[in-house]
Amino acid sequence: MAGLARLEGYLISQAARREADEAGENFAEALSWLGPDEQRVIAERFAQHHLRLKWQMLTAVVGGAQEPKAEYGSATRSFAAPGRPHRTACGFLTGTAPGATATPQWPAPPACRGRIQ
């Protein structure tokens, strides 16, 4: 599984590099007053900038995705009763937990059905 993830990462990075190179070349070609060497330098710098922006966006997305995962993971663990992780959470959702006073107007979620005693 890890090998597939590495291969996928490699292929994505190569595609991003090709995209950045093409964007740099297109940008430099629009600067028709520049000579070929100058256009090459501009294309390379543009491609580097393009890749840097893409990396920043990717790390922001991945970092943002980890925050809710950690937050909801700790919230889920706090609802879980020792030895019966689904009983407390499902009991609160369905109104059958000890001390629950209101009866919900909806059926138990599918994950809770058959787990409440």
Structural summary, described in words:
By secondary structure, the protein is mainly alpha-helical. The protein has one domain (2-94). Helix content is 71%, strand content 0%. The chain has 3 helices and no strands. It has helices at 2-30, 36-79, 85-94. α1 (2-30) runs antiparallel to α2. The longest helix is centred in the middle third of the chain and has 44 residues, at 36-79. The radius of gyration is 27 Å and the shape is elongated. 7% of the residues are buried.
Defining key terms:
mainly alpha; about 120 residues; single chain
The biggest beta sheet reads: none
Instruction: Specify the number of helices.
Output: 3
Strand content: under 5%
Low-pLDDT stretches? 101-106
pLDDT averaged over residues: 74
Distance between the termini: 39 Å
Radius of gyration: 27 Å
> Order of helices and strands, N to C?
HHH
What is the 3D form? elongated
Number of strands: 0
Number of discrete domains: 1
State the share of residues found in helices, binned by percent. Answer: over 70%
Structural class label: mainly alpha
